[in-house]
Specification:
Number of domains: 3
Largest sheet: 7 strands, mixed
Shape: globular
Radius of gyration: 23 Å
Length: 461
């Protein structure tokens, strides 16, 4: 069959690109061998956040006596929790399938592989031709020596999200976003959790200031999540006394399960890239130009297979922008520094733009403003006093350069900041806007006021 666009991969980038292509009048096919929505919807972002919300209720119920409300000890029905989580995913998958159908996208449930310029070979024997091909095949968990996913003791993030069991002792290898989010969830579920991070600091791939990381580490300690940095896991051994993880310093950590969360690798293997002259880089990404085009004419890459942060919203934005460019629109490259990111730990961390450290490295003279959650009436009423808002702006023109939020619902609060950063707007934009009271977003306004030296509810420095 002949198409104007064929998209390989039905994750957040792929399905968004396919739908927008159809909306602008292009004949498009989406090729996906697994579930629509990709890893994010089925085995990543959505199930993780569903479980984060569910286990947050457990935490709140355990401490509700502080407000004079007693529920009794929470009781966990793992089978029902798993079914509820699966139901959330199923609703969203069906919704996307309906959107693909209603927009006129041809959905092909099979594996696709490049078979030369403008040609796609399908695992079911079919053949497609396309004027443009978009590679959006996502990524997969990485293994490291000594820890194979074939070992039943070793979990990938996919395994951890099936909720087959709650291990008494869970060792998490990797102190990045995935590792810390799942560590938070399993600690709430009752596991004793140890995190091993090879690098000197957790969340090292995110541009965060020391203050934010230190706040999270204190919280992890209070919640009895044991974090070891600058520590390499060398092997896992199982014997009569159970399983143990050995580290580079000779320690042996008992473990009923080991969650390997050291990163993800782009799914660029066995795609037939050699048939169009495309070579992945050493990390497996497909090099692209400012229009997401690879070195092969009319072959494009978006999402996790392209360089840049592996974020679902980054993939979706690239997919939509690319589709618009196919219809004649201007393809503007994303400003990766301003793309917001959220980490669903307890407390949450969200950021957009530059950290104070990075802004100074780039030569900016900066104004920095902060405001604590403990000074927000809404936060105290929610029993969520941990954390702070931080804004970083250029001292010369007051243009907002970056925001970091540590605290409850940080993931919901960062979008206002991201809009201001992406729009090149100033501290005065936030400080001058009337924010509803009592709400958490007031903290961002107060931080902006603090940077300007005129905050009302905190002492200005």
């Amino acid at each position: 069959m002949e198409y104007q666009v064929v998209v390989l991969g039905g994750g957040p980038g792929g399905y968004a690109c396919a739908i927008r292509c159809a909306q602008v009048g292009l004949r498009v096919a989406l090729v996906e061998e697994r579930e629509i929505g990709g890893v994010c919807l089925n085995w990543g972002c959505i199930p993780t956040k569903a479980l984060y919300a569910a286990t947050k209720l457990i935490e709140q119920a355990r401490t509700a006596g502080e407000m004079g409300i007693d529920f009794g000890p929470p009781k966990l029905d793992l089978q029902r929790l798993t079914a509820w989580k699966a139901g959330v995913v199923k609703i969203l998958v069906r919704g996307i399938e309906t959107l693909l159908e209603k927009n006129g996208v041809d959905l092909l449930r099979t594996r696709g592989r490049l078979a030369g310029p403008g040609r796609i070979g399908l695992a079911d024997g079919g053949r497609l031709t396309a004027e443009r091909i978009v590679v959006a095949t996502g990524s997969s968990p990485i293994e490291i020596p000594g820890f194979s996913f074939e070992n039943p003791i070793v979990w990938s993030s996919d395994d951890a999200l099936t909720l087959a069991e709650i291990p008494e002792r869970l060792v998490v290898i990797g102190g990045g976003v995935i590792g810390l989010e799942l560590a938070t969830i399993y600690r709430r579920l009752g596991s004793a959790v140890t995190v091993l991070e090879l690098l000197p600091e957790i969340l090292s791939t995110i541009d965060l200031d020391r203050r934010a990381v230190s706040a999270l580490k204190r919280s992890l300690h209070l919640r009895e999540i044991d974090v070891h940095t600058a520590t390499a896991a060398s092997s896992v051994e199982t014997g009569a006394g159970g399983s143990k993880v050995r580290t580079n310093d000779g320690a042996e950590i008992p473990a009923d399960r080991v969650l390997l969360a050291v990163g993800r690798r782009p799914n660029t293997r066995d795609l037939g890239l050699e048939t169009v002259g495309v070579q992945p880089d050493r990390r497996g990404h497909l090099p692209v130009d400012a229009t997401q085009r690879t070195e092969a004419p009319n072959v494009y890459a978006i999402g996790d297979v392209a360089p840049g942060p592996m974020l679902a919203h980054k993939a979706s934005a690239e997919g939509v922008a690319l589709a618009d460019s196919f219809a004649g629109g201007e393809m503007k490259p994303l400003d990766e520094a301003s793309i917001p990111q959220a980490v669903f730990t307890d407390p949450e961390i969200a950021s957009a733009g530059l950290s104070e450290r990075r802004a100074k490295e780039l030569g900016h003279q900066v104004l920095v403003g902060r405001f604590p959650y403990a000074a927000l009436g809404k936060a105290l009423g929610m029993r969520e006093p941990e954390g702070f808002f931080q804004v970083v702006a250029d001292a010369l023109d007051h243009r907002l350069l970056g925001v970091q939020i540590v605290g409850a619902e940080a993931s919901e609060l960062v979008s206002e900041a991201s809009i201001v950063i992406q729009g090149g707007l100033t501290l005065e934009t936030i400080a001058g806007a009337v924010h509803a009271h009592p709400t958490l977003p007031e903290g961002l306004k107060e931080a902006a006021e603090n940077a300007l030296g005129r905050a009302i509810h905190v002492v200005n420095r």
